[in-house]
Amino acid sequence: MQHTVVAIQFNRLGKKYYFDTANIDVKNGDKVVVETARGVELGFVVSDKMQIGNEDLVSPLKPIVRIARESDIKKYEENLEKEANVLKKTEELVNKNNLEMKLLNCEYTLDVSKLIIYFNAEGRVDFRELVKDLANEFHVRIELRQVGTRDGAKVLGGIGPCGRQTCCTRFLNEFQPVSIKMAKNQNLSLNPNNISGICGKLLCCITYEDDYYKETRNTMPKMGSFVKTPEGKGQVTNLNFVLKEVTVDIKGNPHTFDIKDIKFRETASKDDLNVSDKELLNLEE
Fold this sequence. Notes:
Blueprint: E1 2-9, E2 17-20, E3 31-36, E4 39-45, E5 50-53, E6 62-67, H1 70-96, E7 102-108, E8 114-120, H2 128-138, E9 141-146, H3 149-156, H4 167-170, H5 180-185, H6 192-195, H7 210-217, E10 226-229, E11 232-240, E12 245-250, E13 253-258, H8 275-280
Parallel strand pairs: 2-6, 8-9
Antiparallel strand pairs: 1-2, 1-4, 1-5, 3-4, 3-6, 7-8, 10-11, 11-12, 12-13
Helix pairs in contact: 1-2
């Protein structure tokens, strides 16, 4: 069975969720009202209609309720205007309860049946008393949601070490896993100051070129291995993955070659060379 769906976001940089159009004529850019696990919300259509089959569904599709009316949009804008005051009052109550937590953002559901407050903290926070205080203050259901440091940086924004606005603030909708192995694969300095973002985690941009480095590394010799070049045999001392060049130490002198001009075995090592080769290269055992 085929379903007609569109992707919907609830804020500019939020995740995309798919909803059944329910035979409603929606198009990219429309504002729509949908029902989610959090309640009734106003969302933004960010794709054209598409067809998907049951086999592609991860979870049951929810239908779009309606195209947003003027009254829905007005209510949504009124809710946005309340957020600054909500955060200010919540900050006061956080201090009153002596809680170690950093407030990030808040939002009402469209029908104002629930208030969701996002925060970041180092560990678990016992916010039961805070929830009671907030419920008494705002007279709605309260949901306090703890998010990670990457999500916190995304909300707060900032300038990355590249001098540009952080990727998470500008265009990243979802975070991909980043590992030290990726940094090593790209010959990056493992100094935390050089490979960490303002959130304190590994830079998201390390993932951008990871596939290229993996693919290119498979076509190049290993650091420290021995290769044959037009100038003789030598030991690899540097790899340039962008230019696909290899620097080789030959009798104590560095020479740079295009990868096409050298011959090597992936398993090359000192033990692969014969005695005359070792003497030629002045290698120490």
